[in-house]
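Quick one from the shared queue. A colleague (R.T.) flagged NAD(P)/FAD-dependent oxidoreductase as missing a structural entry in our internal table.

Convert sequence to structure tokens.
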Amino acid sequence: MRRDRTTEGTAVVVGSGPNGLAAAIRLARAGLRVTVLEAAATPGGGCRSEVHTAPGLLHDDCAGFHPLGIASPFLSSLGLERHGLRWRWADVDLAHPLDGGRAGLLGRDPRLVADSLDDDHGTGAGERWRRLFAPATGHFADVVAEALRPVLHVPRHPLTLARFGARAVLPATTSARLLADEAGSALFTGIAAHGFGRLDRPLTSAVGLLLGAAAQVVGWPVAAGGSAAIVDALVATLEEHGGRVLTGVRVTALDAVAEQADLDAPPDLVLLDTAPAGALQIVGDLLPTGVRRSFTRFRYGPAAWKVDLAVEGGVPWTAEGCRRAGVLHVGGSTREIAAAEAATARGRMPERPFVLVGQQHLADPSRSAGDVHPLYAYAHVPNGYDGDATPAVLAQLERFAPGLRERVVATAVRGPAALEEHDANYVGGDIAAGAATARQIVFRPRPGLDPYSLGVPGLYLCSASTPPGAGVHGMSGFHAAGAALRDLARSRRRGGSGD
């Protein structure tokens, strides 16, 4: 991507998730001296990896699969492979099991989805799937470039965006019905459920179309050695450009930032890789009334309930294709998934929640220890849920993999409160950093022409609560840094003109 004009000055980024690091890199490449402050002992935010269950088994803490990471216009421009990042793919990128042993399969080989959907029934579901995704898969790079920007922008590829948008505006349940095949419908619905919200609302097809297209064009890879490898490469890139990351530094007030960053004077720019709740805490009454009111009213979405398992011999999925899949969506039919997502959005715990499952070890065997393998799973639950969703998660897994419980040798669980303690941006356990309502999809995190500015000179929000939203793509940080650099340049031009 085009470099920004070289600029002198200092900048502090609060938070070292992928968006914070992306912002820091863009600022450092423009010539600023950049310090990133991170409260935790290690950088990464939701992109960290740890041993949770049994010795030698590596589990991703939150972000586990990276279709938008490998497709990201900014991250892909950095040459992160120079710093050890290696992408790995399973044989099947995505599987969606159904009762009775059938499963929809998706990946870079178009025969996967066609064979699994038609299933010898002559329904033509494979062709309907192809037609649904053609506007996105046929011009994938252009679609990504448009989708990973604020919704309100002047498009560079207007015809491509219009074709994609005509489908993206539909409710996910409507798009699913167009496929007219049980496996195809459920497969699409499960992908759309990554949006964490009701699936019968307008715009909810967008997530399904973008991530589904990514699975068919670039796949859903994992990072060899864990998702933390992405962060390690980003930190190394930042350091190449003179930036630094200070860990174990918790920022609670704006006026302490300079001292915590070891600066002699307040920085020219401060970017917050935090949820709006964090910005309210750090900036407080300095925020303009309108911004403070919007952030106070900002809605957080359903939460995740994370269950990590150590499984001896792997998972005995009934559907053979699931045994080769890096990611599985476990939730049954379209109707079941839509009902479960509607329940969590209303604050009710469904009996059969939607569960996302990761078998990262199939692409990256280094995460296993002998014949004991890590299994990554999280269910969608109501925000702030304080019950115990683990039995429901295990029941959903056992439903499609009978005998799994007998193979589990260790378990680690994190509910919404533990997730928020692990990463303060996950308010109430919301790992998507904001509810995917139509209003917040268009006006995220608040109404305004510049969604990154906090209305205070030199102060910006760069987290997943800003456009384009959640996912390890770094584009929220990239765009926020761009807004900050433009404002800084304007300010200096005015200052140098004698006005």
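The radius of gyration is 22 Å.
The domain at 10-49+63-85+223-298+428-496 is CATH 3.50.50.60 (FAD/NAD(P)-binding domain).
Added to the table.
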